[in-house]
Amino acid sequence: MEFKISKELISEVKELIQEKNDHKLELVLNDIHHADIAEILDELDFDDATYIFKVLDSDKTAEILLELEDDLRENILSRLSPKEIAEELDELETNDAADIIAELSQEIKAEVISELQDVEHAKDIVDLLRYKEDTAGGIMHKELVKVNENWNVLTCVKEMRIQAENISRVHSIYVVDDEDRLKGRLSLKDLLTTTSTKTAISDVYIRKLNYVNVDAEDVEVARIMQKYDLEAIPVVDELGRLVGRITIDDIVDVIKEEADQDYQLAAGISQDVEADDSIMELTKARLPWLVLALLGGFITVRVLGLFEGAMLEHGNLFFFTPLIAAMAGNVGVQSSAIIVQGLANDTLSGSLFNRLIKEVSLSLLNGVILASILFIGSHFLLNVEIMIGLIVTIALISVIVIASLIGTFIPLLLDKFGIDPALATGPFITTSNDICGILIYFSIAKLILGF
Amino acid sequence: MEFKISKELISEVKELIQEKNDHKLELVLNDIHHADIAEILDELDFDDATYIFKVLDSDKTAEILLELEDDLRENILSRLSPKEIAEELDELETNDAADIIAELSQEIKAEVISELQDVEHAKDIVDLLRYKEDTAGGIMHKELVKVNENWNVLTCVKEMRIQAENISRVHSIYVVDDEDRLKGRLSLKDLLTTTSTKTAISDVYIRKLNYVNVDAEDVEVARIMQKYDLEAIPVVDELGRLVGRITIDDIVDVIKEEADQDYQLAAGISQDVEADDSIMELTKARLPWLVLALLGGFITVRVLGLFEGAMLEHGNLFFFTPLIAAMAGNVGVQSSAIIVQGLANDTLSGSLFNRLIKEVSLSLLNGVILASILFIGSHFLLNVEIMIGLIVTIALISVIVIASLIGTFIPLLLDKFGIDPALATGPFITTSNDICGILIYFSIAKLILGF
């Protein structure tokens, strides 16, 4: 069951904007979820979108703001005063508000912060701005329920009620000491079944719990939360003080982004772009890899030039270069993709040596099967002399083995040096394997035919 | 903060197994999270792993079972009697139990089901077995809290307490009519703040809520839950009856799997495999794509053969074939990856025609930049005659434009016909673009040089 934007709805909205019929506009849009309104705004021009923004209440527009495409959000924010922006942010959770502030220009940022009404909220937001985007601090929020270990159950329940007011999903109650250091967690069930309201919290709380440091990488937090099946995890600073909380919906975004990024890198796209981004942005993400591939191509031209001597007598050797290069590229990408995923999911076990041995066995098996097809095919389909067929066949096996070793080794090497191994997949592997493949092929040919 | 398996722990565990010191073994392992014990078992041989399995309590081993690598789970299950397996399943949530039963052979399946102790639980599990794996029915569980719209608040609270007993996370209370049809949901807050316990539920429940049909695709459910930021969503059958519930942690797995699968397809791996799978499994996933690429390679050999006439006079044309083929492949993969992600994230807007126009502009821009580098490079780095340089340059621009159109068009076409567009990326696109690229290149050369 999902709302679908109809053309009729869009034209109705446009008409109402034209008529400046704010009342009717509010009536129509109030029934629609903010995520869907964001989609409607994406279909309108900037003026109309901003108009709607000013008509609706800030508790609704704040949520819409989060769902908008980046460029539309930027454009709408540029048409709002710092005070209006602050009104939106007052409605948002701390981490969402901090994310939006981070997108603003330096001078507006300060003005917006000074216009925030809720002082506690403002402090929390400013605090969050300190952390790097891809760390636990960068994705956590300050909304959480915490109680002091020295309180009794009665005080605790009272305090919890006050704190929980502003929190949509409680998940867990954290226990801290006087210095705000995280000591453990409290189960709501235990709290409610404790017979005496005078029981000290320190007698009932659970001392064992998962937490992460504020500097932990976001993908690491995602891995821990997935592994232990957690819906929320507390975040502590260097002194062990409870500074925030990360919930599973934040982690869903991290997982999605990380996977999208790996996929794009494998396809030779180096920045987070979408099909609807501008041609300039898409070019910036795509061109660098193509230039790399082109320079690699220059090398293949030179390598082939080295074997020019074979052209007169064995010209048809050159017919097989794209085939050899393609096989090297494909095998290399397969091998590196498996390693990249293994590293990402932390499922690689055993030593490097064993892994390379396994890859050699695997590629030998695949290589022999493919070489047999090639040998038969070259004879019956391509009508090549037996000798050339034999050379291509031997070359194919060698190229497949080497390509798979390169594909396995390079991402592992990058990972060792703290570089994202996904960089290895895509154009980088295909280009280097093209070069190696062609070099190996013609070297074998030269060895056998002696040109 | 995460537990890390140490070599010392592994050897301690192995020793305790050897000594058959069950008591100490239990003591050591009881402090460790089940997800971590699963990792320890992965490091042991099957006999030792099974031994631990029999020592620990079934509430712990049941959870461990879920976390094990597929082959180890299969192996351990094969060493347990149907009664022992049923004991494990009695401890699990319905959907987890159903997933494990689905992996069993047909004859054991029936025996295990007949050994299940909790009849209601068994009924629910059998019910779940009916649904296809990648649908809402396949990922939902039966654990949920539901109340009848005709009850009053008092009855409702009493019933809820009983139902919530077996559920780790309540999230929402669903309201149904006498026919079990989903009518709405109840907020726990509203329920507790209603002044009279005699108030009818029908007076307080929220009639608007998101739900999905039991046949909905799992990726669709994931999209809806992400869009509306839901932690749980109810599932209804064809008659609108409430049959289950999907929670966000089930969806995290769906998102992860879907992203992994797209990534693997882009890399030319057609089944869900991991680095630690057997060589046979890896070959099954990798070889088909390589065979496809090889057959594509045959075509490139034939295509080049068509232009054999050029070899004597313009042999160095052949030096550029890998370069042209590589550029065609890289551009094609970039274009198709952007479309595949756009389709997956539902962010593609505008008509097919506009999209192709945009792609042509983008690729012309990239093509001209790359061709300029190539033209200069071919002259100064590769020492090729101006004429050949010119031909290669013109060919590169044409090839880039055509390759990007193919890369854009094919995934859109596949999607239209209900085929996973991710199939288009990887070897399929690179191979077809190799062939087209080479054909275009030599056709242009022939046109200009007239061989």
What does this entry look like structurally?
- The structure is a homodimer of 451-residue chains.
- Chain A is mainly alpha-helical.
- The first copy, chain A, folds into 3 domains: 7-136, MgtE N-terminal fold (Alpha Horseshoe); 145-254, CBS-domain (Roll); 279-449, Orthogonal Bundle (Tetracycline Repressor, domain 2), CATH 1.10.357.
- Chain A is built from 22 helices and 6 strands.
- Chain A has helices spanning 7-18, 22-30, 34-43, 46-55, 58-67, 70-78, 82-90, 94-103, 106-115, 119-129, 136-139, 153-164, 188-193, 201-204, 218-227, 248-266, 279-306, 311-314, 321-344, 352-380, 386-416, 427-449, and strands at residues 145-148, 173-176, 182-186, 212-213, 232-236, 242-247.
- Chain A has a 3-stranded mixed sheet. Chain A has a 3-stranded mixed sheet with strand order 4-5-6.
- In chain A, helix 3 (34-43) packs across helix 5 and helix 20 runs antiparallel to helix 21.
- The longest helix of chain A has 31 residues, at 386-416.
- Chain A is globular.
- The N and C termini of chain A lie far apart (70 Å).
- At the A-B interface, helix 3, strand 4, helix 15, helix 16 and helix 17 of A face helix 3, strand 4, helix 15, helix 16 and helix 17 of B.
